[in-house]
Write a structure and sequence with these properties.
The chain has about 180 residues and is an alpha/beta fold. About 40% of the residues lie in helices and about 15% in strands. Pfam families: GSHPx. InterPro entries: Glutathione_peroxidase, GPX_AS, Thioredoxin-like_sf.
């Protein structure tokens, strides 16, 4: 019995570095979840999975894209895609409170994918993750609902502008190529 427990402990200890090895260093980021005291560490929670990271806003002409992002989450999530919404008021179209942002996301659009607390997404004050996404893709967000598709295996980041809707064939094709 003791030997079996030791084997399990050793196996768990050896597997932990492997999980972290599947996640690029620049994704070792922890975010507060939207309107929650819980946090999510991108590497611990989603190591090795393709990520679709989107800067969102509650009161934007593109806010309806939440519906399409949820459809991507439901369609591709079981195959490994992780959709992460990051609210931002950089373009002055986000709610003043996390409660209102959460209402728009979770009540109005029935979002079930991961939503973080609001962050800065552009310029020198941008969250380090968004600075790195911009560097790797060659494009920082020009408006709300920019999409960054991250291949954790290669570190490649593909940028899709706000005009590229979640159901667009170019985005879906890029997602499928990573699954």
């Amino acid at each position: 019995m003791l030997v079996q427990r030791l084997i399990v402990i050793v196996m768990l200890a050896l597997s932990a570095p492997l999980v972290l090895a599947e996640c690029p260093d620049w994704l070792v980021e922890e975010f507060n979840r939207l309107r929650s005291t819980e946090t999510v560490n991108l590497c611990e929670a989603f190591a090795g999975k393709p990520l679709l990271i989107v800067n969102t806003a509650s009161f934007c002409g593109y806010t309806g894209q939440f519906t399409g992002l949820e459809a991507l989450h439901r369609s591709y999530g079981p195959r490994g895609l992780v959709v992460i919404g990051v609210p931002s008021n950089d373009f002055r179209q986000e709610a003043a409170s996390q409660d209102k942002t959460a209402e728009v996301c979770f009540v109005d659009y029935e979002v079930t994918f991961t939503m973080t607390a609001p962050q800065r997404v552009r310029g020198t004050d941008a969250h380090p993750l968004f600075r790195e996404l911009a560097r790797r893709s060659g494009s920082e967000p020009q408006w709300n609902f920019n999409k960054y598709l991250v291949d954790q295996g290669t570190g490649e980041v593909r940028h899709f502008s706000s005009q590229v809707r979640p159901g667009d064939d170019s985005l879906k094709g890029a997602i499928e190529s990573l699954l």
